[in-house]
Amino acid sequence: MIDEKELIPRILHGDMKAFEVLVTQYQGLVFHVVNRIINMQEDKEDICQEVFMKVHQHLRRFEYKSRLSTWIARIAYLTAINYSKKYSAGMMVSHPEDIENYSFTDEHPGRLLDKKDVTAYINRLIAQMPEQYRTVLTLYHLNEFSYQEIEEITGMPEGTVKSYLFRGRKLLKDKLGIYLKNEVS
Amino acid sequence: MKEIDEQKLQQLLEQGLSLPDEALSAGEEQELERYSVLWEALEQPVVPGLSPRFAANVTARIRLEKDRKTEFRFNLLIAAVCLLLGGGAIAALIVFSGNTPVMQLLSHYGPILPGGLALILLIQYLDQKLVKEKVRSYS
């Protein structure tokens, strides 16, 4: 784990090696956030680079009021959302309230032979969910942010975050249950 | 299964707690099992991720961007100095010379000077813009 309070001043003094350490530390976090919001595979790395350019440009504004990871995740989230709005306006699902009746286009997982297959199947299902669900599931489970931190990153109220998480997990569990049952029978 | 039960199961998993088997009905146990499989899948990182040279690429791009900005500022400074010197020279000529051939030439072609300078600045700006786009497309 890096010491942010030691690393940030070095970056602000122009130490690019220190910034490279920061990028290495947080590139996974940024990729997970961007990956869930952006569908175009070829754009993901570019957007991640854009995120770190912004981090470098605005690092002076970081006031240690939150964890650095929360601050970087917010930049990643806003950058990806802006990109998504700009380039795939028609693909954004803006009314995800009726999630219980959500229909996936790819519901057939084939045979779920092992954990790797289950993960791949779940990831395929998540990719088809509305953006808000994808984001909260990723921030909570993959990036291990708390409800309050997710609120800070996305601007969604904590109650909404909890609701999206609960409904998203329930939907995925139900879909998984159907196919796990089929595997057993 | 009622929604409150689902909520309870999700809370249990969030807190990493487990209930004794006898506290759960067969249905609840099955649901808990499904949630556990889901939990594990949700925590698996997505592969493939970013390229192995990602961090180096980012820092190289930042360095390039910095160099570009420095160069642009330097060019702007040169243009400003030229403008000042040129303006000073013209002012000196107007003040100190009479109706000399130089003055006649200046009064005839004088307006070209600021126009030419503006053109140079425009070329500089477009050049920087093109470089920036090229950097973005390479990275």
TrEMBL record, chain A:
<feature type="domain" description="RNA polymerase sigma-70 region 2">
    <location>
        <begin position="22"/>
        <end position="86"/>
    </location>
</feature>
<keyword id="KW-0731">Sigma factor</keyword>
<dbReference type="GO" id="GO:0006352">
    <property type="term" value="P:DNA-templated transcription initiation"/>
</dbReference>
<protein>
    <submittedName>
        <fullName>Sigma-70 family RNA polymerase sigma factor</fullName>
    </submittedName>
</protein>
<dbReference type="GO" id="GO:0016987">
    <property type="term" value="F:sigma factor activity"/>
</dbReference>
<dbReference type="InterPro" id="IPR014284">
    <property type="entry name" value="RNA_pol_sigma-70_dom"/>
</dbReference>
<dbReference type="InterPro" id="IPR039425">
    <property type="entry name" value="RNA_pol_sigma-70-like"/>
</dbReference>
<dbReference type="InterPro" id="IPR036388">
    <property type="entry name" value="WH-like_DNA-bd_sf"/>
</dbReference>
<dbReference type="InterPro" id="IPR013324">
    <property type="entry name" value="RNA_pol_sigma_r3/r4-like"/>
</dbReference>
<keyword id="KW-0804">Transcription</keyword>
<dbReference type="InterPro" id="IPR013325">
    <property type="entry name" value="RNA_pol_sigma_r2"/>
</dbReference>
<feature type="domain" description="RNA polymerase sigma factor 70 region 4 type 2">
    <location>
        <begin position="121"/>
        <end position="172"/>
    </location>
</feature>
<dbReference type="GO" id="GO:0003677">
    <property type="term" value="F:DNA binding"/>
</dbReference>
<dbReference type="Pfam" id="PF08281">
    <property type="entry name" value="Sigma70_r4_2"/>
</dbReference>
<dbReference type="InterPro" id="IPR013249">
    <property type="entry name" value="RNA_pol_sigma70_r4_t2"/>
</dbReference>
<comment type="similarity">
    <text>Belongs to the sigma-70 factor family. ECF subfamily.</text>
</comment>
<dbReference type="Pfam" id="PF04542">
    <property type="entry name" value="Sigma70_r2"/>
</dbReference>
<keyword id="KW-0805">Transcription regulation</keyword>
<dbReference type="InterPro" id="IPR007627">
    <property type="entry name" value="RNA_pol_sigma70_r2"/>
</dbReference>
From TrEMBL, chain B:
<keyword id="KW-0472">Membrane</keyword>
<feature type="transmembrane region" description="Helical">
    <location>
        <begin position="108"/>
        <end position="126"/>
    </location>
</feature>
<keyword id="KW-0812">Transmembrane</keyword>
<keyword id="KW-1133">Transmembrane helix</keyword>
<protein>
    <submittedName>
        <fullName>Uncharacterized protein</fullName>
    </submittedName>
</protein>
<feature type="transmembrane region" description="Helical">
    <location>
        <begin position="74"/>
        <end position="96"/>
    </location>
</feature>
